[in-house]
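Field reference: sequence -> structure
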Amino acid sequence: MQNVNLRLTSLLASMVLCGIFVSCNNEENISPGDEAIITEEVKAQFTSLGFDVSDLTTTTGREMLDPAEESGLYLLEGDLVVSKSDLQNMLAGDYVEGEPKLEQYRTTNLVSQGRTINVIGYTGNNANGLDATTQTALRWAVDNYNALNINLNFTLTFGTNFSPFDIVVYRVNGSGGGSAGFPSGGAPFKWVQIQSGTSNFGTNVVEHVITHEIGHCVGLRHTDYFNRSISCGTGGNEGSGGVGAIHIPGTPTTADLNSVMLACFSTNEDGEFGPFDRVGLEFLY
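Structure field:
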């Protein structure tokens, strides 16, 4: 579990006033799944894809809700979930990373145009059920996407029958943050984990984290993927990761420190897209 200084956003003064910063990339301390084992070969494979493996770990995740799901998962860059099969698919790809600047970036794979994305907030009567704060924040996050001028429509339901839904948002144990993955086959990544401690920072911060993780689900990379220290204080280049890091036209070539897709967040987030997050998503969809 990682506790670091986070977004270097508005002013250094705001950092002093805030006092507490939490990584949007913290991940819960859960026993590793037995299908994902970190070996030197695995490290070399991730390194060959351009990943920084200094924070490579394993986690459980999707099988918490669905035992049929692949249980052993790798976790990199704090909030990127990669299964063993995902890793093999990345290794089979052929991606070229462009010169990085602090702009909005997307993966090679996107969600199919004109798609309705059905989201469910899991409310099971157990540790994975969303609390009231997270439910409200999820409503606000979905509203963020539906307010965009894009060719995607998001619906939101709360309940326990998650199987037919495109994105499942649920809670896991942890001090704060979330995790998700990238699209495949024209569909968004299905599983969004939100750590239980995130609620302690208020509804706007939870809204920010959920909006960020859904951004990954529809194909957005971290705005500062090439230098995580910009928002996290530490960390290096995430690389193309075998999924691409493609600049989105119309977004700035100078620093965009208002992006919801920065790798780390602070405890004073407002939960809303930055102006160029909207530009980027409206260009893509």
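Note: The first helix runs from residue 12 to 18.
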